[in-house]
């Protein structure tokens, strides 16, 4: 089949590479414009662009597809059988959705209709789900509202972070899109409309998402820490100093005052939550490196009786 692939981050790379290795004809890759990336903020192409260049596939980088009539005409002239989309980062207008002969297929990192939106992997963990997955779907003009095609579920580990789940789901996405495309060619796919009454939303994260509210349960706090790792990271304040929290465990205790440090030992900083307790295992100052929480207390003013804000 003649395929146009649209994607941007690392999540989309296994899907693109799987399609290429399946000997499909990827006539064009569409990705977001080059942007400052990494700590040095050096302007560079997206992971998907780098992979396309590696395979010698033409790349287009429209800033806003909706307003780029020249790009839409180029796309039309490619006469794609299907457009595959994986975490592209722009909503496709109807003029684009109507171009491919067989439709536009999206690789979405949730078990739809649950967790439509930009950050399903993070919110699956933050919300305490025990299962995540990939759904392939035909696209329409809504936000992840099109008819579902194939699904594959995977359990979420007790201590698994969003970054770790991301790395597993991107590989699962690559496998499922190939199965979807083969069934599309064989005309054996079944379209399943989504039940909108069961839908939930996974909005984009921002830095404030990671703020720890100590009145919440220990389980909710642990889920927040896992679900915001590696970005934006969970954080709290102690004596006016912002402290990122990277790793915690829950513990049984009778909570007296949420946020109160009631013990410090080699296992970490023991803090009361809304119900039980939290042991903080790994922390980081804004300008520092991640360190063992107990080691941090040896060189900073952290003591029993202090209260995280």
Account of the protein in words:
By secondary structure, the chain is of the alpha/beta class. The chain is built from eight helices and 15 strands. The strands form three sheets. The protein has a seven-stranded mixed beta sheet with strand order 5-2-1-6-7-8-9, sandwiched between helices. Strands 10, 11, 12, 13, 14 and 15 form a six-stranded antiparallel beta sheet that branches. It has a two-stranded antiparallel ribbon with strand order 3-4. Helix 1 packs parallel to helix 6 and helix 5 runs antiparallel to helix 7 (218-227). The protein is elongated and about 70 Å long.
Q: What is the CATH architecture term of the largest domain?
A: 3-Layer(aba) Sandwich
Strand portion = 25-35%
Percent helix? 25-40%
* Largest pleated sheet: 7 strands, mixed
Written as H for each helix and E for each strand, in order along the chain, the element string is EHEEEHEHEHEHEEHHEEEEEEH
Q: What's the CATH class of the largest domain, please? A: Alpha Beta
The end-to-end distance, rounded to whole angstroms, is: 56 Å
**Poorly predicted regions:** none
Which overall shape is indicated by the principal axes computed on the Cα atoms?
Answer: elongated
Beta-strand segment tally: 15
Please compute the radius of gyration using only Cα atoms: 22 Å
CATH superfamily of the largest domain: Formyl transferase, N-terminal domain
What is the CATH topology of the largest domain?
Rossmann fold
Task: Give the number of domains.
Answer: 2
Q: Report the mean per-residue pLDDT as an integer.
A: 97
